[in-house]
Every structure is written in structure tokens, then in C-alpha cells.
Design a protein that fits this description.
disordered C terminus, alpha+beta, flat, 17% strand, 33 helices
Length: 959
């Protein structure tokens, strides 16, 4: 009896141990695959379903408790980590675990009942039944229970909606059951010895397929992540722009109200309500406007009595006392809307230290000042802020006796939640939370929702509100990915399940067919050998094959040949504008045509991308003839996807043995010649010469020197004066960059600016120029020299930066400069690169207070339709037109047209390159506004500009 009991206890212990082992394996496998999905608990490759079914098929229904426990563990850990689960998560996990156990038991029963074990089928018609019983039918059970529990009990983020979540769950379980079941059965001990010798082959095949599917899934998620990050950055830029627009709107509204109140300071309540009503209607970010006049202490009683009568409010009184040192009060006299903000009536701004400090700042600056984050009187439980706009009245009839008298403050009252909620709503971006903090403080606005998801997206940006700076962090919420149009993971899941099921059934059907496998392996070996030496897209020999052919040709040194390096011009534009599919089809058509027309003794191959190499036997004349033939082939129109496309090519030619006796030298020299062809206008060929290498080395040397020059601040600025033509008064200076090279002396911009543009060094160079110009303007102003404005040339690469305007504002404000003293010069070519964004940037710059000029006008290809939308202050006539005044009537006609255009657009016109009195007289007669050139002054260092400002002479002006 004891022996029987002992055996039963041992058997029970073994069953518990195996169930616990299954539960741990189930949970570990599930957790390792959780990153393959976008939802916390819905995974497209749910192999634990196959593990559970395989174990139950092999060892019986006694393993179902292990399935239940494993599913419970994984569904507790996924949404909670290793923390204690919430009640909703616990209930959800219990429902899912029960569904998993029921589903596994039902599938195992049906598979055994109909004899469709994937490794031991009893008949040939087992595949469809196994597919139905293991996955398609039975997996609907847990998909239904699980999605209902996740949706209505757990309510976790990232849902695609009940129906799509159900489909995703069903697909994940189906994949696990159909693909995972035979995989795990092949790894478990086999019930028959004859299968043990071959099951490892099945395991390797299934594991290899599984690895490929997992890689595909992860690559797609990675690609989806990059697309989503790019889209999220664009959404954040839109939110940033909306916030900036809200700020600018409120500052403009306050300025208008200041002007209106200054003209009638004794306005009545109904007049104040009428003034602010129009501004409040279209401004959801605003809580209230208030009028806070300056009231001397001696007039307090009189003011309170008059305000009671105006408001019809016998309880109105000023509350909050000013410090003894202050003789004035600044109470809230009117506030609109009144009902929601009645608590603020009578509040004295001078009574609190922080308000008093901001009032003094606004008074000293003479412009609007934003407070820090504070608790409002009318909304003490919500963080808010005030924008204080001082209101002045001009007193004194005479100009010399006139002065500005501070009447009070028009105050915009904002709650932070209203401000940012309005910006988010108007941007149209959903499921994005904002966390906003002051520069040196904690966050005061936070709508970021907690929740885990496969792709974590966040981006920060600064917000400037007068002198206040906030740091904003935008964070995508859990539903952002699911709701985004590019999130199409469900389609991939359908494809993966289909591929997985097909691969599994195919591998199983081939289980005992080694000879077929050997035949297929041999064929694949041949295919791989061909693919290793040919390009998949064009079927031309690839780089590897080209190296082999080139090596063979080099073995016969007595037979000269040429290497042509062919690169398509601006092919990237086709990929970017029409898509890579169109670009690929164009490459196929072009490669086919070149291959068909290439002589048999020449060898054409594709190096990669849009680069080809052609090996041509013979001397230079044969190579040149082939290059001309290739140019003609490329120049033909090709019809691709209803587009008629036409390209050009740049070709570099190197000769063997003249230009090298090894493959690397010939390719390098041909590549160098190809770049020379591109630099000379493209659509041509160039024969290599040693001078090309010398030029390339020289260009590299200059680039390195320029990088060092930027680090050591070797760049200096010269300034050329600009004068008005009606009275010869100085109206500005143009900052022109020079390079004080330690060895080559002072270099003009033509010797390094093109290289800086090409190497992207133009951006740090441009910021150095702006900083030096601002610093010099600040010095001149400190010396008492009145510089009307300084013109600075802006590179397209610099203007197109997202942070250009905030960084420029910070520089100008840091040096204490009025922005109207800075003129930013752009060129016509800059507008053509990204017209919509450039116009938006220019409008923001104009709203920020900068002077804008269009440089070298007439030399580009500007659209007059776009020109009318540019917020310009000045058009600059290029010197190529000015220098031919008196000699070329056509140039004079262009100048007159530009002057007339500027007058009709209300834009000032400046002529560059004025060197003679005749040119100046012509411009003056035809009412050009201003001029610049050697006649009135050459570009000089800053110290000479200072001397000229203190005492101009005719000799100083260059006359």
C-alpha cells in the first residue's frame, strides 16, 4: 500500500514539475516575442500557442494546467512588468489564460480525432484539416475572449479597434499553432524510433524559416518606426508652428489694444468690452483681458468711487497694497469676460512681488512682457500667466518737449491648459501629449499619457514668449501609432501568417523527400552563384564580376583598353519625386538599352545605384566614341509608368596603361574624371589627366583649412556702405565675409564659399558671420554710432533649418539689438528649392521684426506669382545690370522694370555695383531708392567703418 501511495505521489510530483516547466517555457517564449507586435498583448508571431498544442499532443491533456499558468504569467507581466497587477489586468489575464487552455484542449482533441498529427498523419488529406483544426477554426475561441477582455476590462492603449484587434489576435494564434506545433513536435522526444533519425532535419528547416519570418517582421517594424518618427517630427513642427502663431496673434492683439486704449484712456466698461470682444472670439487660448490703470495713492478713493459708478458695482475696491516706496497702485479696473473673472476686479498688480517685478520689466522695456507661471487670482487652482502690455500717451505739443506718459497696462490673462489645448486643437494633431517646463524649473503642463508601446516617440523644442523661454516635450500617446495612417502592420501579419502556414505545410510535405531536397539545393547553389556575380535589378554583371573581368584584361598588358565610369545626372531627383519603383524601372529600361547596343567586345556592368562601368578595348579614340554613344542612349526619352523621362550622364575615362596598371587606380582615376565632367555642366565626358588629381587634392586641402578656420575663427567681416540716392545719406552697411588665411593672406568669398556650400560647412560659417555682425553692431551702438542696418547674406542650407529663427532671435536678443537693424539677404535660387517652406520662414522672420531683401534680383528665374507673396523690404538689382548703364539699353530697361516693380509692390529698390557718376545719375533720375558700390565706398574692416561714421569725407567715400 505504501508503495502504491509513493508511486502516486511521485507521479503527481512529476506532473506538477512538468506543468511548471511548461508554464515557465510558455511565459519566457511569450515575453521574448512581445517586441514583435505593436500592442502590449496582441503579438503577430504567438509561438506559445504552438508550444502548448505540441506538448498536449505529445503528453496529453494533463499538461493543460501548465498552459493555463503560462498564459496567466505572460499576460500579467506584459502590461505590468514585475509590479503587482491592477485588478483589471488580473481579470484580463485570467480570461485569456482560460481561453488559451480551452483552445489548446479543443485543438488537440480534433487533431487526434481525425488523425491529422502533422508528423504522423494517417492519410494524405491531412493538410487542410490540420490547418483548420490547429489554427483557423479553433483560434477564434481565444481571439474572441482575449480581445473582449483587453478592450472592455483592461482598456490598454494602442488598440486598432475591436474588429482589427480580433483579427490580429486570431492571426497570431493561428501562426503559432500552424507553424509552431510541428516545430516543437520535432524538438520533443519522438514516439517512434524511425522518426528520431530524421526529425532534426525538419527542426532545422522550420527554425530557419521562423528566423526569416521574425527578421522580416522586425525589419518592417524598424522601417515603420523610422517612417513614424519622420511623420512625428513633422507633426511636432506643426504643433510648434501653431504655438508660435498663437503667441504672435496674442502679442499683435495686445499691441492693437494698446494703441486703441492710448487714444481714449478714460474709456467706459462697455467701450472696453467692445474693444476686446473681437479679439476674444477667435482666440480660445485667452482667458481674459483686463485694463489696469496707474492710480496715485492720493487718488485712490476718487478712483474707487468713479469705478463703482462705471461698473454699477458698489462693492468694487482696490485690494492688495503697494510697497511704501511706491506712490502708485495698478488695480484691475475692467476685465472681460466679467462673470468668469469677477474675482480679479480691484486686484493691485503692485501688491505681489513677482507681479511688481514684471510690471517694472514691462515699463523699462516699453513693450509686452510675459510673466512666469503663476496662480491666477480668478483661477487659483490652475497654472497661468499674464502678458503685460504697457499703454503710453504722448504728451507735449512740441517735438523736443514731447514725452511718453505711462497710463497703465492692458493685460492678457491665460491659463496654461487653455493656451496649449488651443494650440493642439488648431494643429489637428491627436494622441500627442505635451510636457512643458520653464527653463530652470519643473513642468507646469503635462498631458503625456502613461503607457508602453513598441515605438517610443518624443521630441523637444523651445518656445519663446517675449523674455520667457519654455521647454516643450511632445510625446506620442499609446494610440498615436495605431491611429496613424502609415500604421499598416495588420497587412504584414496576414502575409506572415500566410507565408508561415504555407512554409510549414510545404516543409512537412517534403519531410521524407531527401532527393528532392538535394536537387533543389543544387539549383539554389547555381542561382546563388549567378546572383553573386549579377545585379538583381538590371541583370547586368555586378561589381564582383567587373573586378574579375578587369583582372583578366590586366593580365594582357600589351592590349590597351579604357575604363568608362558612367554616372546618371540628378537621378536621385526621380527617386525622390516619382518614387523608387519608377526609378528602378527606369534603370531597368536604360540598362537593357545599353546592354543591347554595347558591342560584343565591350563589357558593361552596374556598380550600384545609378553608376555603371564600361570596359572598352583599344585606344582613347575608341573610348571617346563609346562615351558619345552612351551619352546619346541615356539622352533618349524613356516612358515609365506613364511618365516620359529623359536623363543625362557624366562619364569619366581612364586608359590602361597610361592612367594605371591596376584596377583600383583605373577606377579611381575614371571616377575623378567623372566628377570633373559633373562640375563642368554634366551631360559630357572627361578624359583623366594628372591635373584632375592635383585639383582634387587642392580642393581637399582647402576644405581641411576651412574646417580649421571655422574652429580658430579666421573669418573676418568687411562692410560696404549703402546710401540713399535722394540725399546721399547712409542707409545701411552690407557685411561681406573674408578669410584671413594664415599662409595665403586675405581670401575673397569666391575662393571658399562654393566649397563651403558643397561640403555643408556653409551652415557653421553662416552662423559665425551672423554672430560677428551682431557683435560689431553692438559695439558701434555702444560707441554712439548710429548704424541704420547691417545686411547679412543667408545660405539656403541655413534658412531651411527648422531652428533657424529661434536661434537667430536668441543671437539678436543676446546682443541687445533691435531686429529691424538686421537685414537678411536671400537669393532667387533659394526660393526655388522649397518655395512653400521658404515663404513661410520669410513671413515668420518679417513678423519677428527683421528687414528682408532679395539679392541679385534679375539673375535667377523667380516666379513673379511667388514674388508677390514674399514679405520683402528691399529688392537689390544685380551689378551685372548696373555696370552696363549707358552702354546697353536692354540692361537699362531691366533696371527701369525692377524699379517700377518695386514701387508697385511697395518695396525699396537698391542698385549694386555703382562705380561711376553716370550710373548714379541714371539711377537717381529714375527714382531708384538707394545704391551700393565702389563710387561711394569699398568694403572695409569694421574699424575703418567706425572712422567713416565719425567723419565722412569725399576721399573716404572713394570719389
Amino acid at each position: 500500500m505504501d508503495t502504491v501511495n509513493s508511486s502516486a505521489v511521485c507521479h503527481s510530483s512529476n506532473r506538477i514539475a512538468t506543468n511548471l516547466l511548461l508554464a515557465v517555457a510558455y511565459a519566457m517564449l511569450g515575453l521574448s516575442l512581445s517586441s514583435t507586435g505593436l500592442h502590449d498583448q496582441i503579438v503577430p508571431l504567438w509561438l506559445p500557442a504552438g508550444l502548448a498544442l505540441a506538448v498536449v499532443l505529445r503528453f496529453g491533456t494533463k499538461m493543460l494546467p501548465g498552459v493555463w499558468l503560462g498564459s496567466l504569467l505572460v499576460n500579467l507581466i506584459l502590461p505590468n512588468g514585475w509590479n503587482l497587477p491592477e485588478t483589471g489586468h488580473l481579470l484580463t489575464a485570467l480570461v485569456i489564460a482560460s481561453g488559451a487552455a480551452l483552445q489548446t484542449g479543443l485543438a488537440a482533441y480534433l487533431i487526434r480525432r481525425f488523425g491529422v498529427d502533422p508528423l504522423l498523419p494517417v492519410n494524405e488529406r491531412w493538410m487542410l484539416r490540420f490547418l483548420l483544426f490547429a489554427g483557423v477554426l479553433t483560434c477564434t475561441l481565444n481571439a474572441t475572449l482575449g480581445t473582449l477582455a483587453v478592450t472592455y476590462i483592461n482598456q490598454s492603449g494602442g488598440s486598432l479597434g475591436l474588429l482589427l484587434d480580433w483579427v490580429s489576435w486570431w492571426l497570431g494564434d493561428s501562426f503559432g499553432a500552424v507553424f509552431g506545433t510541428p516545430l516543437f513536435l520535432s524538438l520533443l522526444p519522438a514516439p517512434q524510433s524511425d522518426a528520431a533519425s530524421r526529425r532534426w532535419v525538419l527542426s532545422v528547416r522550420l527554425l530557419g524559416t521562423l528566423l526569416a519570418l521574425v527578421v522580416i517582421n522586425q525589419y518592417y517594424l524598424s522601417h515603420l518606426s523610422s517612417l513614424l518618427e519622420r511623420s512625428f517630427r513633422q507633426d511636432v513642427q506643426l504643433i510648434d508652428a501653431r504655438i508660435q502663431a498663437t503667441i504672435q496673434q496674442n502679442l499683435r492683439d495686445l499691441t492693437r489694444l494698446e494703441q486703441q486704449i492710448a487714444s481714449r484712456p478714460d474709456l467706459k466698461p462697455e467701450e472696453f468690452r467692445e474693444l476686446v470682444f473681437a479679439h476674444m472670439q477667435d482666440n480660445p487660448a485667452l482667458r481674459a483681458y483686463s485694463w489696469d490703470p496707474l492710480v496715485p495713492r492720493s487718488q485712490r478713493t476718487e478712483f474707487e468711487q468713479r469705478t463703482r459708478e462705471l461698473l454699477g458695482n458698489p462693492e468694487y475696491a482696490i485690494y492688495g497694497e503697494s510697497p511704501p516706496s511706491e506712490e502708485v497702485l495698478i488695480p484691475v479696473q475692467y476685465v472681460e469676460p466679467l462673470e468668469q473673472n469677477r474675482a480679479a476686479l480691484g486686484f493691485n498688480l503692485y501688491s505681489l512681488e513677482d507681479r511688481r517685478r514684471w510690471v517694472l520689466q514691462a515699463e523699462s522695456r516699453g513693450q509686452a512682457v510675459a510673466t512666469g507661471i503663476l496662480n491666477l487670482t480668478q483661477a487659483p487652482d490652475e497654472p497661468g500667466l499674464l502678458i503685460l502690455q504697457p499703454v503710453y500717451r504722448q504728451t507735449g505739443a512740441e517735438l523736443l518737449q514731447s514725452r511718453r506718459e505711462l497710463l497703465g497696462f492692458i493685460v492678457g490673462v491665460f491659463t496654461v491648459a487653455q493656451f496649449f489645448d488651443a494650440a493642439l486643437q488648431e494643429s489637428g494633431i491627436e494622441h500627442v501629449g505635451l510636457r512643458v517646463s520653464e527653463r530652470f524649473g519643473g513642468s507646469f503642463y503635462d498631458t503625456v499619457k502613461a503607457g508602453s508601446q513598441g515605438v517610443r516617440l518624443s521630441q523637444g523644442f523651445p518656445v519663446l514668449l517675449t523674455q520667457q523661454e519654455w521647454q516643450v516635450e511632445a510625446v506620442a500617446g499609446p494610440d498615436y501609432l495605431a491611429a496613424h495612417p502609415i500604421s499598416q502592420a495588420l497587412y504584414l501579419q496576414v502575409l506572415l501568417v500566410g507565408l508561415g502556414a504555407l512554409a510549414s505545410l510545404l516543409i512537412l510535405s517534403m519531410y521524407n523527400r531527401e532527393r528532392l531536397l538535394v536537387a533543389r539545393v543544387q539549383q539554389q547553389t547555381l542561382d546563388l552563384a549567378w546572383q553573386a556575380r549579377h545585379d538583381d535589378l538590371t541583370e547586368l554583371p555586378n561589381r564582383t564580376r567587373m573586378q574579375e573581368q578587369l583582372t583578366e584584361w590586366l593580365k594582357t598588358p600589351d592590349s590597351p583598353f579604357a575604363l568608362l565610369f558612367i554616372d546618371l545626372d540628378r537621378f536621385k531627383l526621380i527617386n525622390d519625386s516619382l518614387g523608387h519603383q519608377v526609378g528602378d524601372r527606369l534603370l531597368q529600361a536604360l540598362a537593357y538599352q545599353m546592354r543591347v547596343e554595347t558591342p560584343e567586345d565591350c563589357k558593361l556592368c552596374r556598380m550600384g545605384g545609378d553608376e555603371f562601368i564600361l570596359l572598352v578595348p583599344g585606344a582613347a579614340q575608341r573610348a571617346i566614341a563609346e562615351a558619345q554613344r552612351i551619352l546619346l542612349i541615356v539622352d533618349r526619352p524613356y516612358t515609365v509608368a506613364e511618365h516620359s523621362l529623359q536623363l543625362t550622364a557624366s562619364i569619366g575615362i581612364s586608359l590602361c596603361p597610361s592612367h594605371g596598371r591596376d584596377a583600383d587606380s583605373l577606377i579611381k582615376h575614371a571616377d575623378t574624371a567623372m566628377y570633373r565632367a559633373k562640375s563642368r555642366g554634366k551631360d559630357r565626358y572627361e578624359l583623366y589627366s594628372e591635373q584632375l588629381t592635383s585639383d582634387a587634392v587642392q580642393s581637399f586641402s582647402v576644405e581641411q583649412d576651412l574646417r580649421q578656420a571655422l574652429q580658430e575663427h579666421q573669418l573676418v567681416l568687411h562692410y560696404q556702405p549703402q546710401y540713399r540716392l535722394d540725399d546721399d545719406r547712409l542707409c545701411g552697411l552690407e557685411a561681406l565675409v573674408r578669410w584671413q588665411h594664415p599662409e595665403r593672406g586675405l581670401l575673397g568669398p569666391d575662393q571658399f564659399i562654393p566649397l563651403a556650400e558643397e561640403t555643408q560647412l556653409i551652415v557653421p560659417l553662416g552662423w559665425q558671420v551672423i554672430e560677428q555682425a551682431c557683435q560689431q553692431m553692438s559695439r558701434w551702438l555702444e560707441q554712439g554710432l548710429d548704424v541704420p542696418l547691417v545686411a547679412i547674406n543667408i545660405s539656403p542650407h541655413q534658412l531651411l533649418q527648422a531652428d533657424f529663427i529661434p536661434r537667430l532671435n536668441a543671437l539678436a536678443d543676446g546682443f541687445g539689438l533691435e531686429r529691424k537693424r538686421i537685414e537678411l539677404e536671400i537669393t532667387e535660387s533659394m526660393i526655388q528649392q522649397d518655395p512653400d517652406f521658404v515663404i513661410q520662414q520669410l513671413q515668420r522672420l518679417r513678423l519677428s521684426g527683421y528687414h528682408l531683401a532679395l539679392d541679385d534680383f534679375g539673375t535667377g528665374f523667380s516666379s513673379l506669382d511667388r514674388l508677390k507673396y514674399l514679405p520683402l523690404n528691399r529688392l537689390k538689382i544685380d551689378k551685372s545690370f548696373t555696370r552696363d548703364i549707358g552702354r546697353n539699353p536692354k540692361d537699362e530697361a531691366v533696371i527701369l522694370t525692377v524699379i517700377a516693380l518695386g514701387r508697385s509692390l511697395g518695396v525699396e529698390v537698391l542698385a549694386e555695383g555703382v562705380e561711376t557718376e553716370k550710373q548714379r545719375d541714371f539711377l537717381k533720375i529714375h527714382q531708384c531708392n538707394s545704391m551700393q558700390g565702389f563710387l561711394m565706398g569699398k568694403p572695409v574692416p569694421a574699424e575703418l567703418v567706425s572712422l567713416q561714421q565719425s567723419g565722412f569725407t569725399d576721399r573716404d567715400r572713394g570719389k
